[in-house]
Design goal:
- By secondary structure, the protein is α/β, with parallel strands linked by helices.
- The chain has two domains: 30-114, Rossmann fold (3-Layer(aba) Sandwich), CATH 3.40.50.10860; 140-266, Rossmann fold.
- It is built from ten helices and eleven strands.
- It has helices at 7-27, 46-59, 74-86, 106-111, 123-130, 140-151, 171-180, 195-199, 249-252, 266-284; strands at residues 3-4, 33-39, 62-68, 92-95, 160-164, 184-188, 204-207, 228-231, 235-236, 243-244, 258-259.
- The strands form three sheets. A six-stranded parallel β-sheet has the order 1-11-8-7-5-6. A three-stranded parallel β-sheet has the order 3-2-4, sandwiched between helices. A two-stranded antiparallel ribbon has the order 9-10.
- Strand 5, helix 7 and strand 6 (184-188) form a beta-alpha-beta unit.
- Helix 1 (7-27) runs parallel beside helix 10.
- Bound molecules: nicotinamide-adenine-dinucleotide (NAD).
Length: 286
């Protein structure tokens, strides 16, 4: 039976540190504030937003949401983005993406203040992540995976990690971050011939595909016995009642050493890291 590594435990440890830093900031007359820029009303953002509000309310960090009409022009979007980017009270900016077509995030990615770029949307932090920097803002979800590994005190040197997914927001940055921490990384995607073969001898498998039931027990037969399976995926359950991850929990759990769940795993750590980044943004402005 695998050990279930709970997002709540990882997030609780992070929260203690955030609270201390927030107090230190306030003692110096500074504060932290997140600004979320949303275009239209995409229901896909609703559950992420609920998680953010919960974390920010618990920690007592200011949060504002700026909403533009779904049919706004590129000039209107860029102007509003610039206002937020130049607002000295804002210490972190999150743009809900993807933007509705034909809007582009290009201008925002080029001009965002790197110290406010708390989810690695801008080119500076994206390039820094890809170059192996340990001192920039990583995408929160990819960093959340690292926090689970750190929480379990796993040294990545000489470890084989398989990442399933190669998106620019999760899979790719995670690969760079893992390599920078000495892991030996294999990245799988929809055009990988035999994922089961790639998983053989894996110490850690991260699923970030958005494909329900992608990782099944029979694919784990040659993975190491203490393999840590970390599920980033968020999918609707087959019965439509709630969410599930990419891992078929019932068949994988008996074969894994450690495992995360969906819900209750990576998601809660992601929103807590967003708060940590907003506080760090304020510290950078000191
Ligand atoms: P994406 O659609 O941009 O990328 C998915 C990647 O997975 C692609 O590279 C694709 O090649 C690969 N893939 C898809 N199906 C596959 C399959 N059957 N076999 C092998 N590879 C496959 O998605 P994304 O934005 O990277 O998000 C991935 C998942 O993570 C989604 O379910 C998303 O909802 C979830 N997510 C979770 C959080 C969180 O906080 N927990 C945050 C962001 C995204």
């Amino acid at each position: 039976m695998a050990q279930i590594v709970k997002g709540a435990d990882v997030a609780a440890k992070l929260r203690e540190n955030i609270k201390e830093r927030l107090e230190a900031l306030r003692a110096k007359g500074r504060d932290a504030k997140l600004s979320v820029l949303s275009v239209g009303d995409d229901p896909a953002n609703a559950s992420y937003e609920r998680g953010i509000i919960k974390v920010f309310t618990t920690l007592g960090i200011a949060y504002e949401k700026v909403v533009l009409e779904g049919n706004c022009t590129q000039a209107e979007f860029d102007k509003k983005f610039t206002e937020i980017n130049e607002d000295p009270s804002v210490t972190g900016i999150l743009v809900f993406r993807p933007l509705p077509k034909p809007l582009s995030v290009e201008f925002a990615a080029r001009t965002i203040d790197p110290d406010k770029d708390i989810d690695c949307m801008g080119y500076y932090n994206q390039a820094s992540t890809a170059m192996g920097s340990k001192d920039c803002f990583y995408p929160c979800t990819a960093e959340a995976v690292l926090k689970f590994i750190e929480f379990e005190e796993i040294d990545l040197a000489f470890k084989n990690v398989v990442v399933i997914g190669r998106s620019t927001v999760v899979g790719r940055p995670l690969v760079s971050m893992l390599i920078s921490r000495n892991a030996t990384v294999t990245c799988c995607h929809t055009k990988t011939a035999d994922i089961t073969d790639r998983i053989s001898n894996a110490d850690i498998v991260v699923t970030a595909a958005g494909s329900r039931g992608l990782l099944k027990g029979d694919m784990m037969k040659n993975a190491k016995k203490d393999c840590f399976c970390i599920d980033v995926g968020i999918n609707m359950r087959e019965d439509g009642q709630g969410i599930c991850g990419d891992i078929e929990f019932e068949s994988v759990e008996p074969l894994a050493g450690k495992i995360t769940t969906v819900p209750g795993g990576v998601g809660s750590v992601t929103s807590t890291l967003l708060a940590e980044h907003v506080v760090r943004g304020a510290e950078l402005k000191l």
